[in-house]
Amino acid sequence: MNQKIWVGTNWKMTKTISEGLAYTEELVRISKKVSNNIELFIIPSYTALTSISELTSQSRIHIGAQNMHWEDSGAYTGEISPRMLDEIGIEIVELGHSERRQYYKENDADINKKVHAALRYDMKPLVCIGENIVEKKNNISKETLAAQLKVCLKDLTKEEASSVMIAYEPVWAIGENGIPADSGYVAEIHAFLREELIQLFGEVGSDIPLLYGGSVNHENIIEYIDIVDVNGLFIGRSAWETERFEEILRKLENHLYN
Ligand code: 13P
Fold it and tell me: Is residue 188 assigned to a domain?
């Protein structure tokens, strides 16, 4: 197997600048031994972005921001604009994470504006979608996900869509109380998302990376990465220490490329 995969971590609100720098120095060292088929990325907190992007500029690690406003500038206290992220060379913007949706009431229409804004600045939107436990229990996961995809990606040209990445993160699988999703279920959902993307964007939809996230760890990564339509993994807790992240990377590498 020779296909590229995306593997990265969302630090959420965990690391200070000094902690982030120590982590990143170590990850730069680790990354030198990782196959070029693995696109590595980290999504630090805003305060650490400038120093971390300087540190990684000569490395193969991609840097992302955890959120962004859609306007270039304006009276939006507490927000960060695409222009500001562009200035420090940010390549990826994570949009619509379930914690943003849950605690800050972000909705698909807002996320769509942010996707367009990111693309205007040549940043890669990493759009997070996922059903919650009530939607799953009511058997409307697919309807929910189809609607999220459709609205978040509204009015994108095929060319623009080719720069987007999607992370499927079932809300009930994320974080401390998350229950890791069954790999059969992930396979079914990713196949469905792939079909939806092809419906929306034709052939381009076949190449949009579909990442899986939610309680991914060194024990379940192989099961997930073996799924045909899983093109990467988006990891929280299990990649917040470089030793554990390295273990995950080594396992993936041995399984896929050796
Ligand atoms: P966990 O891996 O800690 O469940 O978090 C996943 C996540 O939210 C990635 O964005």
Answer: yes
Question: Is residue 258 a part of any domain in this protein?
Answer: no
What's at 4, amino acid-wise? K
| Count of domains observed in the chain | 1
Angle between helices 183-201 and 141-152 (to 10 degrees): 40
Residue type, 117: A
How many Å apart are CA 76 and CA 256, to the nearest integer? Answer: 45
pTM of the model: 0.97
Protein residues whose CB sits closer than 6 Å to any atom of ligand 1: 10, 97, 169, 174-175, 178, 213-216, 234-238
CB 60 within 8 A of CB 31: yes
SS (H, E, C) 210-241: EEEECCCCCCCHHHHHCCCCCCEEEECHHHCC
Question: What rounded mean pLDDT belongs to the chain?
Answer: 97
Catalytic site positions: 97, 169
Residues 176, 67, 133: CA angle, nearest 5 degrees: 40
For ligand 1, atom 1, the nearest C-alpha belongs to 236
* CATH number of the domain that residue 109 is part of: 3.20.20.70
Strand partners, 93: 65, 125
CA 173–ligand 1 middle distance (angstroms): 8
Give the whole-angstrom CA distance, residue 76 versus residue 14.
24
Say whether pLDDT at 2 is over 80: no
